Amino acid sequence: MSITIKDVDHVANLARLTLSDEEKTTFADQLNAILKYAEKLNELDTDNVEPTSHVLPITNVLREDETRPSWPIEDVMRNAPDEEDGQFRVPAVLE
Q1: What is the count of structural domains for the chain?
Q2: Where are the transmembrane segments (predicted)?
Q3: Residue 35 included in any domain
């Protein structure tokens, strides 16, 4: 695949950019160089490489979930600036 000046012009138009002819040529050359460099990845033999989501073997560092009793509602409501019917009362956000 090769990037043409017409492709650069199309992308510039989508981005609402005005490019000179020299800039279009420069960007086309630069983009083609990037694609040529990326094509080198196709030369690699990846047949025996397992797909991974991360290059390092990372394990979950979080603790296991464990069920435990909740705090008594009276203790929780002692920290509430305002409460009503066993619930935190907060200022209205919507009118």
Answers
A1: 1
A2: none
A3: yes
Range of the domain at 10: 5-43
Per the DSSP assignment, residues forming a β-bridge with 83 are 88
Residue-wise pLDDT for 67-86, tens only, equals 999 999 889 888 888 988 88
Sign of CA dihedral 46, 48, 52, 55: negative
CATH no. for residue 20? 1.10.20.60
Q: Which residue has the tokens 């650069």?
A: 8
DSSP state of 44: S
